């Protein structure tokens, strides 16, 4: 097959990939990455394959035909809507969906079912930025583009571990800085992350203190006459109030630096640089958004840019950067409960009338729907009786995640469409629908700089998996909405959506894809990455006119957050986020063993001082407890942590560890404007946990219910069917019966027991001698050679049983030939050596190496050897 | 030249002859009186011989020429009937009168007979010498009951199955080879032999051997073995393999001190300074013997005294028991069941499809061992046992054998890589 161009399925950078299905490389023609790829992107082919794919629709675990499944979904939604009204159903969708999928889901829920109960996991990462954009610019628009990062004189990265979460953006900044060393980089983050390697200045601000930091900046700029008064006067509203609010905290920089936990020198250096650099880009991401005042934090940043006239200009812009491949596309089509479509608002009667007219519907939702957390609260209360979850994993990713699971378990109808077969949310589903995954599906995605590019298929659909848009439209038709869902191909959806953006233009919005409204299937196929507005350049608002009714941007007066005293019971502030080589809930990256080489188990990073203070051990285990949940993970000492804070990765689910879902710890405290949860600020307690035993288990079965387990994928096992490697630890005494239950039925058994020291090993083999399960338990973690063991699983072998139990080959000593004297276990080569050294009789041999000196049964053979050796 | 007479031509006697002729080739005029009409053969090889794994020529380690070469007079087929201590003379059944300056009793042991009715019936046999093997090899296909789950009983049972007999083995204890193996290994052995066709009745005490004709009690042909629980095992032949009894009649008649065996001191001398005794017939420090290793040691010590190089003492050393049951290797030593540790011992076990290992440990020192099947590391463990080596540092890999212990010694303590 010849190579095709597609877009990476991971973060919001949206890199182009060129692949033939066997090998891949960065697409040098793609504007986002110009040929570069990060480790996740480069290994994405390793995550493909039919393993653990959802292949067929099922109802209550029983495989059914698509007809039956679609009828069932449609019938249940129809019935609930008829009996309880449209707000009794909901969709919860995802930034993994393509624009076309998103569009029809939104159209079905808002336009035809008549409820705005469609929200998305983008609520969890971007919705505060959406609010900030809308408040400031009158529209959810990222004004800048990636090039700005390269031509800026000052790049501020705040609330973003860009190096790990958006590696290619980071590399572009790094390359620019290398070319222009005078370019400055400031990282604002409570943690000293890998991103700080590039920083000229790291501002380790206390968690939740971005508003005072940027309010202070506004005051400082005012004090130092660094404001663009002309821009403020002609292009903005609300400056005076914003400044007054900022000034309310005073201009005592000593006091502010103490409050922020930053040295005054660093603080004023940062302010000074900001004042001095006309070309300043402030990149903000989840660290800003995922807070109780995430929207205000975003606006505090934008305020500083508006006050200096640095919006949408080359090298000068606030820059919200997204986490998911199509978070932006979802925002554009309106896939959020408080948007209508194409940047229009539900509660604006003119917008409402225009969209209703375009969609030819009388059912169009009249009020905002439930945002993510509220949506699942409504599921819990029974207000929402049917929920359809598409391509996302709320049981892991929402705050108070255990409660979400509980809510879903109690819900009348849970439909999940996904491309994987096992997942914590799928486990709650009544009806499961197999969706296409990356490499199979076809459509558009929009990246962080508004660049629309194609995801193109290059592999056939496995089993009966179908495109999400197809599934949604089939359900729509079966619910009776025969008009409006007659699409034959995804390009028709994209064209319709593009045509709809004309309404955005009509109401003064920048979103404009009208040039694609008449797109043919062929043109769709040939689509090259393009930024929107499709006719209008790469930056928005450069001329100082905005999408507000009066064309002026708005300052937002941002109050300082109420400082919450940290109680003694939860003295540590827990932050969560991505690690370099994993993505979301690992449904994809969890399939590539090499992506676990970097960080293989769930962990909590803590400052060495805290490790000492709370009597933890680096590499040991820590139990974290919050008001709503707990977790048990490994301890990772990290001098980059602020003392008093901890960091846990967001990736581990119940599929990968026993209790490592960070969101089970996070209380559902939301930004009042965006509904976005405060993931970055969870008060927790930490305590040491010392297991009595450690172990490894390799099995295709589910892991045992011990206190701690973590799945650590091994690439070599990809060929060994479903075998997985688990790291185990526990503090209850083990019985042989338990060990027996952890292992599958087997034709042959190898076992080692040393109960006094708690050392146990088990190996189960099939009748061909192929390993099917392996277990080793000890007071310390038993060693094993994973790669070698993997070969015993895949190939079977002539390998010695002892080596299998050992989990590694014994150092192959010299081959001493067969045993001749079985009493003393003397081998042929040893005897021959004795003869060569002068032993000329059976007795002499016996004196040399004891052979033949006990029962004498081997003496005839010794004589034979004497003859052959001396001959 | 002095006269040395050796009564018995078994493995202990022959080892003695080898040693004496090596140490003092010209000191004695030697006469050996063997009861069996054969030259020196390796009794250990009787089991393979019965099993068809070898032949009589091969197991004949010391043919007549060997005696001739050393000027030893070998009298076979004519057992000694009396020792005239006052004349320093022995008399054989054929009437040989042999004077001696030194006499060595190496009369060995006889198979123990079951203490039940019917042991003299036709078809009730033992498995001890070449005669027995020849007889067992000549049987036509039949039902055979072997009594005794020790080494000889198992060898006999396995060999008889191979020859097409229907064999049932009766053992009084819960597991086979209970002197040499722990329960787990004993059960494995049973399982392995069952796969070859031997049937077992365990924890069964033989109550009687019944004849075909109930009228002629204690005479005629054997018909069945009756067990204490009433179970009746039909049998055309019965092989008794319930241990051995030291042969002490001659010594007893001669007035030597005899308890279970002929009593000897640490130089293997009996009550009479001119008479020594070695091998299975002796009792040394309240102990009798049945395995080849201590026999050889006794022969060597005794020979050194006969050679008038008398400086060695025989002291029993606990050694490993090494057996090959029908091709299955076993080694055990020491307190392998931890019986003597009062519950403080710790046992480590390794179980494989083809083998089993058990190490009994106390205070991080090996105090006993059972190896079944794969015995390649027996010598390694035996050395650790003899040297009272501390196995603490190697404990995790100890059961995996020498190669892994060496690798662990080289590889340090294997710190866990910090995952996160």
Automatic annotation (TrEMBL), chain A:
Q: Which InterPro entries match?
A: Asp_de-COase-like_dom_sf, BFD-like_2Fe2S-bd_dom, BFD-like_2Fe2S-bd_dom_sf, CT_Nitrate-R-NapA-like, MoPterin_dinucl-bd_dom, Mopterin_OxRdtase, Mopterin_OxRdtase_4Fe-4S_dom, Prok_molybdopt-oxidoreductase
The processes (GO biological process) annotated in the record are: cellular respiration; nitrate assimilation
Q: Which domain of life is it from?
A: Bacteria
Q: Which UniProt keywords apply?
A: 4Fe-4S, Iron, Iron-sulfur, Metal-binding, Molybdenum, Nitrate assimilation, Oxidoreductase
Supply the Gene3D superfamilies for this chain: 2.40.40.20, 3.40.50.740, ADC-like domains, BFD-like [2Fe-2S]-binding domain, Dimethylsulfoxide Reductase, domain 2
Q: Where is the 4Fe-4S Mo/W bis-MGD-type domain?
A: 1-52
GO MF terms here are: 4 iron, 4 sulfur cluster binding; metal ion binding; molybdopterin cofactor binding; oxidoreductase activity
What is this protein's name? Nitrate reductase
Organism ancestry: Bacteria, Pseudomonadati, Pseudomonadota, Gammaproteobacteria, Oceanospirillales
Automatic annotation (TrEMBL), chain B:
This protein's record includes keyword Flavoprotein: yes
Q: Where is the FAD/NAD(P)-binding domain?
A: 3-286
Residue ranges of domain NADH-rubredoxin oxidoreductase C-terminal in the record: 320-382
GO MF, one annotated term: oxidoreductase activity
Alphabetized SUPFAM superfamilies for the sequence: FAD/NAD(P)-binding domain
Gene3D superfamilies per record: 3.30.390.30, FAD/NAD(P)-binding domain (3.50.50.60)
Q: Which residues form a coiled coil?
A: none
Question: Which keywords does this Swiss-Prot/TrEMBL entry list?
Answer: FAD, Flavoprotein
Family per UniProt?
Belongs to the FAD-dependent oxidoreductase family.
- The name under which this protein is listed is NAD(P)/FAD-dependent oxidoreductase
Q: Which organism is it from?
A: Alcanivorax profundi
